[in-house]
Specification:
With 217 residues, the protein is mainly alpha-helical. The chain is built from ten helices and no strands.
């Protein structure tokens, strides 16, 4: 196999790994969600070994971020501290300190289902990519977009750069900075920092020129 072709496949596999590994942590309640096995695996993680293998982020940065995540799980997944922090950040009912939807930051009215959400929906429809969730859930949730990134890397790699450049990268770093600042539990601070480092590393590796919007929040 041509070496460049193998490198390209390895990069796509790394992108899929990032999306599949991190996406569920933004989407799933630590106690009642479907990612219990992933939380348990992270709680038992060898941070040194994982940081050395983590794609797209510098080893020292990945080590610090993974250590924060493991620290947050050290009290156990059943600890209500982690559960309530997830619900405070991503569920409500109180106003969320860092809402996980892109249009909240890029739409002048700071609304869910804003213009960027509709643009992503139209792009997915044009590409024949099915929604991952029901019509009532905005497609531009960070967790959904990470999972979708993984799916595209595995199934539609020819449109991956457009997805990243046009729909995910324009707002992800801004949001993840907001989330890291808002997090009061080390797991979610580490998650935000690792996701940011990974996405920015992907952007660099794929040499993507991203036009950043004005942020209204």
């Amino acid at each position: 196999m041509d070496e460049n072709m193998q490198d390209g496949r390895d990069m796509l596999e790394g992108i899929a790994f990032v999306g599949e590994t991190l996406g569920p942590f933004f989407l799933q309640d630590p106690k009642t969600g479907e990612a219990g096995a992933a939380f348990q695996a992270l709680a038992a993680l060898d941070v040194d070994a994982a940081a050395a293998e983590w794609p797209f982020a510098e080893e020292t940065e990945a080590h610090g971020d993974l250590a924060l995540m493991k620290e947050g799980l050290a009290r156990g997944i059943e600890d209500d501290d982690l559960v309530w922090e997830y619900r405070r950040l991503f569920v409500g009912p109180a106003p969320k300190p860092a809402p996980p939807w892109g249009s909240v930051y890029t739409d002048r009215e700071c609304v869910v289902f804003g213009e960027s959400t509709l643009a992503l929906r139209a792009w997915m429809r044009a590409q024949g990519i099915e929604r991952l969730v029901d019509d009532k859930t905005p497609e531009d949730h960070i967790g959904l977009m990470l999972v979708l990134m993984a799916w595209i890397a595995r199934n539609r790699p020819e449109v991956l750069d457009d997805f990243l450049r046009l729909h995910l990268l324009p707002w992800s770093s801004h949001f993840l900075d907001e989330l890291a600042e808002a997090a009061e539990q080390p797991f979610y601070e580490g998650l935000a920092r690792l996701a940011k480092a990974s996405l920015e590393g992907i952007q660099s590796e794929r040499a993507l020129d991203v036009a950043y919007p004005r942020f209204y929040r």
